[in-house]
Write a structure and sequence with these properties.
mainly alpha; 7 helices; two-stranded antiparallel sheet; globular; about 5% strand
Length: about 210
Protein backbone atom coordinates (compact mmCIF):
# COMPACT_ATOMS: atom_id res chain seq x y z
CA UNK A 1 0.00 0.00 0.00
CA UNK A 2 1.17 3.51 -0.81
CA UNK A 3 1.19 6.12 2.01
CA UNK A 4 -2.28 7.64 2.33
CA UNK A 5 -4.80 8.80 4.95
CA UNK A 6 -5.84 5.13 5.24
CA UNK A 7 -2.32 3.96 6.12
CA UNK A 8 -2.16 6.68 8.80
CA UNK A 9 -5.38 5.28 10.30
CA UNK A 10 -4.00 1.75 10.03
CA UNK A 11 -0.93 2.78 11.99
CA UNK A 12 -3.22 4.13 14.71
CA UNK A 13 -5.26 0.91 14.69
CA UNK A 14 -2.14 -1.22 15.02
CA UNK A 15 -1.05 0.95 17.97
CA UNK A 16 -4.45 0.39 19.57
CA UNK A 17 -4.23 -3.35 18.89
CA UNK A 18 -0.80 -3.64 20.52
CA UNK A 19 -2.08 -1.69 23.54
CA UNK A 20 -4.41 -4.58 24.31
CA UNK A 21 -1.86 -7.41 24.09
CA UNK A 22 -1.11 -7.55 27.82
CA UNK A 23 -4.16 -5.74 29.15
CA UNK A 24 -6.63 -7.15 31.66
CA UNK A 25 -9.39 -9.15 30.01
CA UNK A 26 -12.08 -6.57 30.68
CA UNK A 27 -14.09 -5.95 27.53
CA UNK A 28 -16.26 -2.87 27.92
CA UNK A 29 -15.98 0.67 26.50
CA UNK A 30 -12.93 2.49 27.80
CA UNK A 31 -10.75 -0.58 28.40
CA UNK A 32 -7.64 -1.46 26.40
CA UNK A 33 -9.10 -4.83 25.35
CA UNK A 34 -12.27 -3.20 24.04
CA UNK A 35 -10.25 -0.68 22.07
CA UNK A 36 -7.89 -3.36 20.75
CA UNK A 37 -10.76 -5.49 19.48
CA UNK A 38 -12.33 -2.51 17.72
CA UNK A 39 -8.98 -1.79 16.06
CA UNK A 40 -8.60 -5.42 15.02
CA UNK A 41 -12.05 -5.45 13.41
CA UNK A 42 -11.20 -2.31 11.42
CA UNK A 43 -7.91 -3.84 10.26
CA UNK A 44 -9.71 -7.05 9.29
CA UNK A 45 -12.06 -5.07 7.03
CA UNK A 46 -9.17 -3.29 5.30
CA UNK A 47 -7.18 -6.48 4.66
CA UNK A 48 -10.22 -8.50 3.58
CA UNK A 49 -11.10 -5.80 1.05
CA UNK A 50 -7.52 -5.95 -0.26
CA UNK A 51 -7.64 -9.76 -0.53
CA UNK A 52 -10.92 -9.58 -2.44
CA UNK A 53 -9.58 -6.89 -4.75
CA UNK A 54 -6.48 -8.92 -5.57
CA UNK A 55 -8.55 -11.97 -6.47
CA UNK A 56 -10.12 -9.97 -9.29
CA UNK A 57 -6.90 -8.34 -10.52
CA UNK A 58 -4.70 -9.50 -13.35
CA UNK A 59 -1.66 -7.92 -11.70
CA UNK A 60 0.71 -10.19 -9.80
CA UNK A 61 2.10 -8.72 -6.57
CA UNK A 62 5.40 -9.85 -5.13
CA UNK A 63 4.72 -9.12 -1.47
CA UNK A 64 3.81 -10.80 1.81
CA UNK A 65 0.05 -10.77 1.28
CA UNK A 66 0.33 -12.42 -2.13
CA UNK A 67 2.71 -14.95 -0.61
CA UNK A 68 0.09 -15.92 1.97
CA UNK A 69 -2.64 -16.02 -0.69
CA UNK A 70 -0.62 -18.43 -2.85
CA UNK A 71 0.69 -20.59 0.01
CA UNK A 72 -0.35 -24.25 -0.09
CA UNK A 73 -0.04 -27.08 2.41
CA UNK A 74 1.06 -30.66 1.64
CA UNK A 75 -2.38 -31.46 0.20
CA UNK A 76 -2.39 -28.40 -2.09
CA UNK A 77 -4.94 -26.53 0.02
CA UNK A 78 -4.58 -22.76 0.19
CA UNK A 79 -5.17 -20.56 3.21
CA UNK A 80 -8.68 -19.21 3.75
CA UNK A 81 -9.31 -15.46 3.66
CA UNK A 82 -9.48 -15.39 7.47
CA UNK A 83 -6.14 -17.21 7.70
CA UNK A 84 -4.52 -14.80 5.25
CA UNK A 85 -5.77 -11.80 7.24
CA UNK A 86 -4.71 -13.35 10.57
CA UNK A 87 -1.22 -14.00 9.23
CA UNK A 88 -0.89 -10.47 7.83
CA UNK A 89 -1.91 -8.85 11.13
CA UNK A 90 0.37 -11.16 13.13
CA UNK A 91 3.29 -10.48 10.79
CA UNK A 92 2.93 -6.71 11.08
CA UNK A 93 2.61 -6.80 14.88
CA UNK A 94 5.52 -9.22 15.36
CA UNK A 95 7.76 -7.96 12.57
CA UNK A 96 7.27 -4.22 12.82
CA UNK A 97 6.21 -3.14 16.29
CA UNK A 98 8.79 -5.26 18.13
CA UNK A 99 11.66 -4.19 15.84
CA UNK A 100 10.74 -0.50 16.11
CA UNK A 101 10.57 -0.77 19.90
CA UNK A 102 13.99 -2.44 20.01
CA UNK A 103 15.57 0.28 17.85
CA UNK A 104 13.95 2.94 20.04
CA UNK A 105 15.45 1.43 23.22
CA UNK A 106 18.85 0.99 21.57
CA UNK A 107 19.04 4.66 20.57
CA UNK A 108 17.58 5.69 23.94
CA UNK A 109 20.29 3.90 25.94
CA UNK A 110 23.08 4.88 23.54
CA UNK A 111 22.06 8.53 24.00
CA UNK A 112 22.45 8.03 27.75
CA UNK A 113 25.73 6.12 27.40
CA UNK A 114 28.30 8.14 25.37
CA UNK A 115 31.07 5.61 26.07
CA UNK A 116 28.97 2.75 24.71
CA UNK A 117 28.14 4.80 21.61
CA UNK A 118 31.83 5.64 21.09
CA UNK A 119 32.73 1.94 21.31
CA UNK A 120 29.94 1.07 18.86
CA UNK A 121 31.30 3.61 16.39
CA UNK A 122 34.75 2.10 16.67
CA UNK A 123 33.36 -1.38 16.09
CA UNK A 124 31.54 -0.21 12.97
CA UNK A 125 34.57 1.49 11.38
CA UNK A 126 37.53 -0.42 12.84
CA UNK A 127 37.51 -4.17 12.11
CA UNK A 128 40.57 -4.80 14.32
CA UNK A 129 38.88 -3.09 17.28
CA UNK A 130 35.80 -5.24 16.71
CA UNK A 131 37.79 -8.49 16.61
CA UNK A 132 39.66 -7.61 19.82
CA UNK A 133 36.65 -6.41 21.83
CA UNK A 134 33.62 -8.38 20.68
CA UNK A 135 34.10 -11.91 21.91
CA UNK A 136 31.41 -14.60 21.50
CA UNK A 137 28.43 -14.39 23.86
CA UNK A 138 27.90 -17.21 26.32
CA UNK A 139 25.13 -19.64 25.31
CA UNK A 140 21.77 -18.65 26.75
CA UNK A 141 22.67 -15.03 27.53
CA UNK A 142 20.56 -13.54 24.72
CA UNK A 143 17.08 -15.05 24.62
CA UNK A 144 15.07 -12.12 23.28
CA UNK A 145 13.90 -14.25 20.32
CA UNK A 146 13.12 -17.33 22.39
CA UNK A 147 14.64 -20.70 21.69
CA UNK A 148 13.99 -24.24 20.51
CA UNK A 149 10.62 -24.87 18.86
CA UNK A 150 9.37 -21.50 20.15
CA UNK A 151 12.10 -19.38 18.57
CA UNK A 152 10.91 -16.41 16.53
CA UNK A 153 10.90 -17.46 12.84
CA UNK A 154 11.90 -13.95 11.79
CA UNK A 155 14.79 -13.57 14.23
CA UNK A 156 17.52 -13.46 11.58
CA UNK A 157 15.68 -10.77 9.60
CA UNK A 158 15.18 -8.75 12.80
CA UNK A 159 18.88 -9.03 13.66
CA UNK A 160 19.78 -7.86 10.16
CA UNK A 161 17.39 -4.89 10.37
CA UNK A 162 18.77 -3.86 13.76
CA UNK A 163 22.38 -4.22 12.63
CA UNK A 164 21.85 -2.11 9.50
CA UNK A 165 19.95 0.58 11.42
CA UNK A 166 22.49 0.84 14.23
CA UNK A 167 25.37 0.84 11.75
CA UNK A 168 24.08 3.84 9.81
CA UNK A 169 22.98 5.70 12.93
CA UNK A 170 26.24 5.20 14.80
CA UNK A 171 28.60 6.26 12.00
CA UNK A 172 26.41 8.93 10.43
CA UNK A 173 24.53 10.70 13.21
CA UNK A 174 24.59 11.95 16.75
CA UNK A 175 21.48 12.44 18.84
CA UNK A 176 20.23 13.48 22.25
CA UNK A 177 17.07 12.82 24.24
CA UNK A 178 14.82 15.84 24.70
CA UNK A 179 13.35 14.37 27.87
CA UNK A 180 15.97 12.00 29.33
CA UNK A 181 14.17 11.75 32.68
CA UNK A 182 10.77 10.77 31.31
CA UNK A 183 8.81 8.20 33.28
CA UNK A 184 8.36 4.73 31.79
CA UNK A 185 5.08 3.07 30.85
CA UNK A 186 5.39 -0.71 31.22
CA UNK A 187 2.22 -1.92 29.48
CA UNK A 188 1.78 -3.32 26.92
CA UNK A 189 5.53 -2.87 26.30
CA UNK A 190 7.99 -0.69 28.23
CA UNK A 191 8.46 2.73 26.65
CA UNK A 192 8.98 6.32 27.82
CA UNK A 193 5.80 8.27 28.46
CA UNK A 194 4.95 10.30 25.31
CA UNK A 195 7.70 8.45 23.43
CA UNK A 196 11.47 8.88 23.23
CA UNK A 197 11.67 12.24 21.45
CA UNK A 198 15.19 12.97 20.22
CA UNK A 199 17.11 15.68 18.40
CA UNK A 200 19.57 14.40 15.80
CA UNK A 201 22.02 15.78 13.27
CA UNK A 202 24.38 14.35 10.69
CA UNK A 203 28.01 13.93 11.63
CA UNK A 204 30.50 15.85 9.52
CA UNK A 205 32.34 13.54 7.15
CA UNK A 206 36.08 13.36 7.68
Amino acid sequence: MEPSPLTVKMDQWFTGLVAGLRALLLDFPGTAIHGARKCRRKLNVVFRDEVEARKNMANVYDDVMSGFMEMEDEQGKKLSEDEVVDNIVSTVVAGYESTVTTIMWATYHLAKSPNALANLRLMKIDEEFLMNNAGPAKPGTYQVFGGGYRICPGNMLARLQLTIMLHHLSIGYEWELLNPNAKIDYLPHPKPVYGATMRSRKLARK
